[in-house]
Write a structure and sequence with these properties.
This protein is an alpha/beta fold and about 250 residues long. The chain has a domain at about 30-45 and about 60-205: Alpha/Beta hydrolase fold, catalytic domain (Rossmann fold). About 40% of the residues lie in helices and about 15% in strands. It has 8 helices and 6 strands. The protein has a 6-stranded parallel β-sheet with strand order 2-1-3-4-5-6, sandwiched between helices. Strand 1, helix 2 and strand 2 (about 60-65) form a beta-alpha-beta unit. Helix 3 packs across helix 4 (about 100-115) and helix 4 (about 100-115) crosses helix 6.
């Protein structure tokens, strides 16, 4: 974990020194609501830096309400569904979902169950399937042990949190991703927690960055990709002008 902390600190310092973080020379957003979903063992605090940046560059960021992302993902998915319904009704527009690690899996499940409320899903270091084999061997025993203990304390079935579970979340993860929702997966081959090959999705576009798994939430390469993937003010006008330009 020491290496992950050092990597996180390095990427955060680079981000804070980048004019992009302060909105300089950046095409501003068009006020699109963005729901941020944290990863396993994390909470909204882990995405606070990204939320502040999104607000600064013209978006309407919403935190998930998750203090600690552990336990039954079906319960988390249901609560996120209520949160999504509230914010899209409030804004009068579909939302972009940005999920880190397990948060990205939850975002994919939400897109399957509520495609009319979502225009795009962006995942950060998130596997395309729920399987313990996608977790690096170094972390797998500890994570499985904790999950097993949590299941026992809360009387949850052993298949909880996997595609084998018969709950709505399990069916959504195993189901086909809706074509009407755009999907972008951002991954790193240096990922110390998740096998990067499990993050490559056949349902959308894939984008590689450098750095580790934990630091993706403060990785300036990720932020630069978000600028290009999120709806931008003036992007349609620029596209229209380009199409109207005479061929040379």
């Amino acid at each position: 974990m020491g290496e992950s902390f050092i990597d996180f600190a390095q990427h955060l310092s680079r981000l804070l020194c980048d004019p992009l973080f302060y909105g300089t020379d950046t095409i501003r957003g068009e006020g699109t609501p963005v729901l941020l979903i944290p990863g396993f063992f994390a909470g909204d605090w882990s995405l606070a830096t990204m939320a502040r940046w999104l607000a600064r560059v013209g978006y309407r960021p919403y935190l998930s309400g998750i203090d600690w992302n552990v336990g039954c993902p079906n319960e988390k998915s249901e609560r996120l569904g209520w949160r999504l319904a509230h914010l899209t009704d409030e804004c009068g527009a579909p939302a972009v979902l940005v999920g880190h690690s397990l948060g990205g899996v939850l975002a994919r499940a939400l897109a399957t169950t509520s495609p009319e409320r979502i225009c795009r899903v962006i995942t950060l270091g998130s596997p395309a399937r729920m399987d313990w084999n996608v977790v690096r061997a170094r972390y797998r025993p500890a994570m499985r042990a904790f999950q097993t203990l949590w299941h026992a304390l809360n009387n949850l079935p052993s298949q909880c949190g996997t595609e084998r579970c018969g709950c709505r979340f399990g069916g959504a993860v195993a189901g086909d991703f809706p074509r009407k929702v755009q999907l972008s997966s951002i991954y790193t081959r240096e990922d110390e927690v998740v096998d990067w090959r499990a993050c490559v999705s056949a349902d959308g576009t894939n984008h590689e960055v450098s750095g580790g798994h934990v630091s993706m939430v403060v990785n300036r390469e990720v932020y630069r990709l978000l600028v290009s993937l999120l709806p931008r003010r003036g992007a349609e006008r620029q596209s229209a002008r380009a199409s109207e330009s005479p061929a040379v």
